[in-house]
Write a structure and sequence with these properties.
mainly alpha, Ferritin, 0% strand
């Protein structure tokens, strides 16, 4: 796959991630998770816009733009600090857990795609893919942390470790 094709796939993946979060934020019960999904939707939208600009740059024979500074985690920390998790019932938590599990797997897949693309690239495009992979790994970590809280809050013994 050539660089343009990889960027097109990455762009489509980011748009699909954004759509997933937009759809699912209405389904989760905890306000914290609605805000987190809204936050992740905005991040994916920004990633897609960045990739679209890079595709336009390539088509015009221009070099790639520098990656924007990573200010996303500051907003995430603000969301988490403002929230007080109210005790939820098991049904609510397990419903939210299922949605978060899907989100976790999506983010993990994105990170793996970018890692693979970085391994097959060099120079500035390799750096771009490494940065995108790092962002997606942070998103996956957010999901993993929240899933751990649900498991802990409900003293669940699932008999297996539900995520890596």
């Amino acid at each position: 796959m050539n660089l343009e094709d990889v960027l097109k796939v990455a762009h489509r993946m980011e748009l699909q991630g954004m759509e997933f979060y937009d759809e699912q934020k209405g389904r989760v019960k905890l306000q914290l998770l609605r805000e987190l999904f809204d936050f992740l939707s905005d991040m994916e939208r920004g990633h897609a816009a960045y990739l679209e600009t890079q595709l336009k740059n390539m088509a015009a024979g221009k070099s790639l733009d520098a990656l924007p500074d990573d200010v996303e985690m500051d907003r995430y920390r603000d969301i988490m600090e403002k929230q007080k998790i109210e005790p939820a019932n098991l049904k609510t938590d397990l419903g939210d857990y299922s949605i978060m599990r899907m989100a976790y797997l999506i983010e993990k897949d994105f990170a793996q795609f970018y890692d693979k693309s970085a391994a097959e690239s060099d120079g500035e495009i390799r750096d771009l893919f490494i940065r995108l992979a790092d962002w997606e790994k942070e998103h996956a970590k957010m999901m993993k942390d929240e899933m751990s809280k649900i498991i802990s809050r409900n003293a669940l013994d699932l008999g297996f470790y539900p995520f890596e």
